[in-house]
Amino acid sequence: MSNTVDQAxxxxxxxxxxxxxxxVPRQSANDQRQRTADLGTAGLLAARQVVKSYYKxxxxxxxxxxxxxxxxxxxxxxxxxxxxSGKSTLLHLLATLDAPDSGEIHFGGxxxxxxxxxxxxxxxxxxxxxxxxxYHLLPELTxxxxxxxxxxxxxxxxxxxxxxxxxxxxxxxxxxxxxxxHRLKHKPRELSGGEMQRAAIARALVADPEILLxxxxxxxxxxxxxxxxxxxLTQLNSEGLxxxxxxxxxxxxxxxxxxxxxVEGRVEPEI
Length: 271
Prior knowledge:
This protein is α/β, with parallel strands linked by helices.
């Protein structure tokens, strides 16, 4: 790991679990910005005055309009909002999958959006676990092989081969944890939607990340299966893993410690 990413990871050592009460008076926009700034100082992951637009030919389409957001270590935060409010865009910026037009992203007290691409790749591989609405499992690989892909990418051929038993044991343990010990050799086309999402969760956890970023993790699932996925996420959070989840489902969002609402590209003051 490069020195920059190493320092960011070390700065993000786990702290005691923190919960936030929502039973407080409505805040003004200035109060909200100050609270986010205070959170950002101690937060594990933070966005500061983030602006992002997309372009269709010469037409700029604003998506995020000066967003401030922060999550503390051990917290479970749900980001909600209508379609087009910028939820997934914000999550992708937090994960350094995309870059803001202006503003900054900080992880463990260090700015990360301006890191070289190789450092951002390492940061995502070793510190940020991600799960997506559409799973993104590789169709030609088995369930177990999909979970092992972050290890293969991080270690390279020789190191992976030398430590393959250790990695395999961890992957098998995670698949057992999410209820897929009987599906190790099955390929994605042989799995249900809920099973594919559970495999994606195991893959996101295989590198023991500091934080889990989940983009509509129940969006393609029926209610019962979705509740099973949420049970896994809340259990992981109770064990100390920080979770940031994007969802449009208020019932799913209610499982989080704190809800952040995006309205037309801005954070709505918390109530």
